[in-house]
Amino acid sequence: MRKAVDFSTIVYDIRHINKHLPGTTQSAKLIRKEGAAHVFKDKNTLEYVEKTILEEGKYIGNVRGAERYGYQFKEPIGYRIDANGNQIPLYYGEMKISNGKYHIIPRTKPSK
Across the strands, what pairs with 90? Predict the structure, then answer.
């Protein structure tokens, strides 16, 4: 993994946790506002994805002003849920780092 950021100098931005967990007020708000939300299966899965990216993630680059690292999982880590309740499984985890803070996002593929 090419390192653009010293992981010991960044902290988790907890403001983003609930919008990536199913059944929370924040994820429901995201679905209403944007038509869909990308959520992890549960908080334990989010923590597993975070650990895996920190240990094995690949540097994606600076995308839309944030450094990004990602990892492709073999099993679904979450799903994209839309306003009708339709779900698409997600296999890609991404760490977004901005202003010394990071958060973890389940995605369909790396950001571009």
Answer: 78
